[in-house]
Amino acid sequence: MTEPLPHLPVSQERDPLDGLLELIPTPDDQPRLRADAARNRTRLLEVAARLAGECGAANLTMEGVATAAEVGKGTVFRRFGDRTGLLIALLDHQERELQSAFLTGPPPLGPDASPVERLRAFGAAVVRHEYAHRDLYLAARADALRHHTIPATLLRLSHLCMLLRQAGARGDIELLAQTLLGYLDITLVDHLISRRGMTMERLEAGWNDLVGRLVAVE
């Protein structure tokens, strides 16, 4: 069972991001791979990306990557743990680009905009980003329980908690943030667009409406 997110008193002057960011590994926290191991990992990811492009991420297997890379299956498992770990590693580059945009990028997504503007921009950015890479994201979400505990999800959750607090939202901030994350889930977005025929513009308008109901609209 995962530990609950830290609840900080409103009067305590500490960024709500701090508690979660302590749980998110930075590059310096990762085990330092030997040069040859790092090269092998990069090569395996290149092979996996090529196979995902050719046959679709849903059909990507550890055995297929091992065969294409001409290594033993155990090598792939040692590098990535399991198939979900491999898919998460493939998503890492795209995810870091998104993280950079909402943590340090220009407004309205980045820090130089108001909290409400950033909340609105965050929803649109995540929906468009994940839908553009939906093949990989949908495949990686096969392990739904694990999705809620990976660093990328924790970072998004902590970011929403921070913006909701700054925007003066009332209620249980963590649950409000989880509600917002649920709206952005790629499995739901893909269903609404592919099967319900909704447009991206309609989803973004719905996100803005939801944000407006949770905070004092500026």
Automatic annotation (TrEMBL):
The lineage of its organism: Bacteria, Bacillati, Actinomycetota, Actinomycetes, Kitasatosporales. Keywords: DNA-binding. Residues 38-98 form the HTH tetR-type domain. PANTHER family: HTH-TYPE TRANSCRIPTIONAL REGULATOR RUTR (PTHR30055), POSSIBLE TRANSCRIPTIONAL REGULATORY PROTEIN (PROBABLY TETR-FAMILY) (PTHR30055:SF209). PROSITE patterns: HTH_TETR_2. It comes from Streptomyces bluensis. It comes from the Bacteria. InterPro entries: Homeodomain-like_sf (IPR009057), HTH-type_TetR-like_transc_reg (IPR050109), HTH_TetR (IPR001647). Residues 61-80 bind DNA. It holds the Pfam family TetR_N. This is TetR/AcrR family transcriptional regulator.
